UniProtKB/TrEMBL annotation:
It comes from Microbotryum intermedium. Its main location: membrane. One of its GO terms (biological process) is iron ion transport. Residues 311-421 form the FAD-binding FR-type domain. Its EC number is 1.16.1.9. Belongs to the ferric reductase (FRE) family. GO terms for molecular function: ferric-chelate reductase (NADPH) activity. It is an enzyme of class 1 (oxidoreductase). PROSITE patterns: FAD_FR. This is ferric-chelate reductase (NADPH).
């Protein structure tokens, strides 16, 4: 009643105001010749209830100009040229992986500028040791000091670069790694001139060098000048930080690498601070520069942990673990209200009952739709995690799955995803995944389907293709039910899923032999479906819980293929099937070779657009994720 009376009084005021305006209009005109109908018309203001467009003009003008500029042929070809450079990627050589061509050009430009600026100026050395420090050492040292804050900024999970630009931390890791190697080279170029110039024998005029030591030996190990020993002490952990981060070492000993990397970073930062503080460069601001760097990095750390506390709350979320085929577990996390994420994002999880001190990066496999302006309620987060049954986190998660118990988890994130783009603005979307990379595209697929089902503003997608490559048929059980529920939201022709099995089916003889072996084990009196003393799970438990039945009902939107997908052919077909007015959006996640093939196929299409291709899609957008960084 209160709301009704309030709205009625508002309506009365509006009508009264309209009548007053009409009365003023009545007095302004001679109405003696008006008919009764015309006089009544004056009392009605039809513009009071009409839409007001003035506020929409500022938003419509840039949008209209943007569409016109994007449709311009020259602009389209220029954009394709930029994307061609940004997408193309050299193939891996062994374990050496190169970034994209655009990133290589950016990094190479910085390297060339700094190294040319450092090495092109002469002299490199002073005439004598006591005249002053070698100019080459001073230049390279200050350049290294200038690079240092960017290394920390690009290495933090929550950082100010991401906050300003929208590019997530995993996309900045390549800059973090290559700037670190540049820092190491500059540090060596800073060190060697002191070694060369320090070979000069120190005179014994003051009687303090009777053994006639060299200048550098006397300064560092006799006089114990702090800026010499602190420089050497900083150089040792720096070398490990760079060379110990090589892909084979990082992948083979990830947990050890992570702790050593953290400890080495602390040691290096401490010695580097001492080194710069004692060099007496205060007029050049080196010490103050380090304080500014520390504030920049520590603010990122504080913000990350503040968000961690706000998102998890006092009572941590609970997770249940379910065993799936192909050494995979499904983790279902009951997230508290207010915790929201988008398709393609990842989180870092700490399993309190499993490995509480280890943080594991995982991609969220689902993305329940939520209006951007709505408050997130309690939702379930689904994680697919490949494990090793005998090492790492695997045995602990298998034990939780075998007992059916839940565990508190600490959720750090979400991070990444399609932060700077929206695949929903493209008419044709292609989602590509290799192995467990399906977690990335499954959440994007759910987001697109739910937005399409709700006819959400801005969604222009008409067709979604999913191409998923795995080794064995059993991997389909990972997301079989998820795909069925998601595809049911949209029309039959909206989604097509192509499932590629790269290995042939398991030979029946092997299956029968394994089943017989398991039967023998189960006949033993003490055989149990539990973990052994070494933390590994019995083969009976794995076989029983991994042979889950797949959906036998044929689905019109699901097709199974034998062999590896021909990624260039798949993408070329998607490009040519579109009209020149349609755009194609691509998202990919998989091993390094998989992602490189996708990038180069898209780069080839961008090159065709640049050279004036007259058929097929003229707008191609690509977003890629990889298993590691």
């Amino acid at each position: 009643m209160i709301a009704s009376s309030s709205s009625s009084s508002t309506l009365v005021r509006v009508v009264r105001a309209g009548a007053q305006g009409a009365a003023l209009l009545w007095r302004r005109h001679d109405t003696s010749s008006f008919t009764p109908a015309e006089k009544a018309e004056i009392l009605i203001d039809p513009y009071n209830e009409s839409p007001k467009y003035l506020a929409t003009y500022p938003a419509r003008i840039p949008s209209s100009l943007g569409r016109r500029v994007a449709a311009n042929r020259f602009v389209s070809r220029f954009r394709a040229g930029v994307r061609w450079i940004a997408c193309s990627q050299p193939r891996t050589i062994g374990w050496i992986r190169f970034p994209t061509t655009g990133t290589i050009l950016l990094i190479a430009s910085l390297w060339i500028f700094i190294l040319v600026r450092s090495l092109s100026m002469r002299p490199y050395y002073r005439s004598r040791w006591n005249v002053g420090s070698p100019p080459l050492a001073i230049r390279t040292g200050l350049f290294a000091l200038g690079v240092f804050p960017f290394i920390l900024a690009f290495g933090a999970k929550w950082n100010w670069v991401t906050f300003v630009t929208g590019y997530s931390h995993e996309k900045l890791q390549v800059l973090h790694q290559w700037l670190s190697h540049l820092f190491l080279i500059l540090s060596l170029l800073h060190t060697f001139p002191f070694v060369v110039a320090g070979r000069e024998i120190r005179p014994n005029t003051d009687g303090k060098n009777p053994h006639l030591y060299s200048q550098i030996y006397y300064s560092g190990w006799v006089a114990h000048k702090v800026y010499y020993w602190s420089g050497v002490a900083a150089l040792i952990p720096l070398a490990w930080l760079c060379w110990g981060s090589a892909t084979p070492i990082r992948n083979r000993f990830y947990e050890i690498f992570k702790y050593l990397h953290f400890v080495s970073a602390i040691l290096f930062s401490a010695f580097f601070y001492i080194h710069c503080n004692r060099v007496r460069f205060l007029l050049l601001g080196s010490w103050h520069y380090l304080w500014a760097t520390a504030i920049l990095y520590l603010s990122s750390v504080v913000m990350r942990f503040a968000l961690l506390f706000v998102r998890n709350g006092i009572a941590m979320p609970k997770a249940t673990v379910e065993l799936l085929p192909e050494s995979t577990v499904r983790v279902l996390i009951a997230c508290p209200p207010g915790h929201r994420w988008k398709g393609g994002q990842h989180v870092f999880l700490n399993f309190i009952k499993a490995k509480p001190l280890e943080s594991h990066p995982v991609t969220v496999a689902n993305a329940p739709w939520l209006h951007p302006n709505a408050k997130a309620g309690a939702r379930t987060m689904m994680i697919l995690l490949r494990i090793s049954p005998r090492s790492g986190l695997g045995p602990a998660l298998l034990e939780l799955a075998s007992h059916g118990t839940s565990t508190p988890v600490l959720i750090d994130g979400p991070y990444g995803g399609l932060m700077t783009s929206d695949l929903g603005v493209n008419e044709h979307v292609v989602l590509l995944a290799g192995g467990s990379g399906v977690s990335f595209i499954s959440s994007i697929l759910q987001d697109l389907c739910e937005r399409r089902a709700r006819k959400f503003e801005g969604i222009r997608t008409k067709k979604v293709e999913v191409h998923w490559a795995v080794k064995n048929d059993e991997a389909r059980a990972w997301l079989d039910d998820h795909f069925v529920s998601v595809v049911a939201l949209v029309p039959d022709d909206f989604v097509r899923i192509h499932f590629y099995v790269t290995k042939s089916a398991i030979i029946q003889d092997v299956v029968e032999a394994t089943a017989a072996a398991v039967a023998v084990v189960e006949e033993k009196p003490n055989a149990q479906e539990s973990l052994t003393s070494k933390g590994s799970i019995t083969s009976a438990y794995i076989l029983k819980h991994s042979q889950q039945p797949l959906s036998s009902t044929p689905q019109p939107w699901f097709a199974t293929h034998r062999g590896r997908p021909d990624l260039p052919a798949v993408l070329e077909k998607a490009f040519t099937s579109c009209s020149t007015t349609e755009a194609v959006g691509i998202a990919s996640c998989g091993p390094a070779e998989f992602t490189t093939a996708v990038r180069n196929a898209v780069a080839h299409r961008q090159k065709q657009i640049l050279l004036g291709a007259s058929t097929g899609a003229q707008e191609v957008e690509l977003h890629t994720e990889e298993f590691d960084w």
